[in-house]
Automatic annotation (TrEMBL):
Signal sequence annotation: none
Keyword match Hydrolase: no
Pfam families: TetR_N
InterPro entries recorded: Homeodomain-like_sf, HTH_TetR
Annotated source species: Eisenbergiella tayi
DNA-binding region: 2-21
UniProt xrefs under SUPFAM superfamilies: Homeodomain-like (SSF46689)
Taxonomic superkingdom: Bacteria
Residues of the HTH tetR-type domain: 1-39
Organism taxonomic ancestry: Bacteria, Bacillati, Bacillota, Clostridia, Lachnospirales
Protein name (record): HTH-type transcriptional repressor KstR2
Length: 205
């Protein structure tokens, strides 16, 4: 994907893109910053007194993988990440700066209310970020349905072993649906019917 492709996806001219960003890495930084900080669902979850810390964390991950704006952004990014280690590095740096603080906040709540059994919110948040935004991310790894579900399975086992049962059936379903959206964006350029056919032919989600 070129800057022109990104400009077309955003409904902007190439000149407008260059006016605001020096290159792809800087634009990725701005896009991911928007994704992690401008999402309205984060504030809704944060103030929901009916949820404990673990439930808030689960709700956050489900919302981030089903929110329409997030899906559009990820769809755009997915077409360029596979070819550029620099962009992956920029993405992970933004995850470190944006995802970890939010995740740590909910983990601290979970430890306080007993829904999470770990004793270090900082390290637990880092572990969650690495697994969910790197190992399970279709932006970073091309994979099949079978391999994705195995990764989810082992991530679930590992997180439960350290007192953080983040992954339940709802989270798994959201991961599957999100993966399908990213697959469609990467492999299809036309209608959703064509997209679904491509998915079926590849024996994926």
């Amino acid at each position: 994907m070129t800057l022109q492709d990104i400009a077309d996806a955003c409904g902007l001219t190439r000149g407008a893109i260059y006016h605001h960003f020096k290159g792809k890495v800087e634009m990725i930084d701005a896009v991911t910053d928007y994704m992690f900080n401008a999402a309205t669902f984060y504030q809704d979850i944060k103030v929901d007194a009916s949820l404990n810390g673990l439930e808030k964390l689960r709700r956050l991950f489900v919302a981030s993988m089903t929110d329409d704006e997030h899906i559009k952004m990820y769809a755009m990014l997915s077409q360029t990440f596979y070819k550029s280690p620099k962009l992956v590095s920029a993405y992970l740096l933004d995850c470190q700066n944006s995802v970890i603080p939010i995740t740590q906040e909910y983990i601290e709540e979970g430890i306080a209310d007993g829904s999470i059994k770990g004793d270090s919110s900082e390290y637990l948040a880092e572990i969650v970020m690495v697994f969910t935004n790197l190992w399970l991310s279709p932006l970073v790894f091309k994979t099949t349905k079978e391999k994705l579900l195995l990764r989810v399975k082992y991530t679930k086992i590992m997180l439960e072993s350290i007192g953080l049962p983040l992954i339940n059936d709802e989270v798994i379903l959201a991961i599957e649906q999100f993966y399908k959206q990213c697959l469609c964006a990467t492999n299809c350029n036309s209608s959703s019917d064509r997209c679904n056919r491509a998915v079926g032919q590849k024996n994926l989600l």
